[in-house]
Design goal:
The protein is mainly alpha-helical and about 90 residues long. It contains three helices and no strands. The N and C termini lie far apart (about 110 Å).
Length: about 90
C-alpha cells in the first residue's frame, strides 16, 4: 500500500496499536466529524443573524413607544411655551 500524506493523528493512532488502515479510517472519521461540526456551527450562526417576526414586533413596539414619549414631550413643550407667551403678554399690558 502506497503511503500518502500522514497526519499526526494517524501517526498517534498507529502508535497506540491501531493498524495503518484503522488509523487512516479514524483520522478520516475525525475530519468528517470536525467538518460536520463546523458546518453546523456556521448554520447556527446564520440562524442567529436572521430576524424573526417576534424580534421585529419587539423592535416595532419599542419604536412606537419612543414615538409616543417624544410626542408627549413635544406637546408639553408647546403648551409650556404657549403659557409662557400668554403670561408675558398679560404681564406687559
Amino acid at each position: 500500500m502506497r503511503r500518502r500524506f500522514r497526519t499526526e493523528s494517524a501517526d498517534r493512532a498507529e502508535g497506540a496499536g491501531f493498524s495503518e488502515a484503522q488509523a487512516e479510517i479514524i483520522t478520516k472519521l475525525q475530519k468528517l466529524a470536525v467538518a460536520s461540526t463546523l458546518d453546523r456551527a456556521k448554520h447556527d450562526f446564520e440562524l442567529d443573524s436572521l430576524v424573526t417576526n417576534q424580534s421585529l414586533d419587539l423592535r416595532i413596539k419599542d419604536v412606537e413607544l419612543k414615538i409616543v414619549e417624544t410626542k408627549s414631550e413635544l406637546i408639553r413643550w408647546v403648551v409650556s411655551g404657549g403659557l409662557l407667551q400668554s403670561a408675558l403678554i398679560a404681564g406687559c399690558c
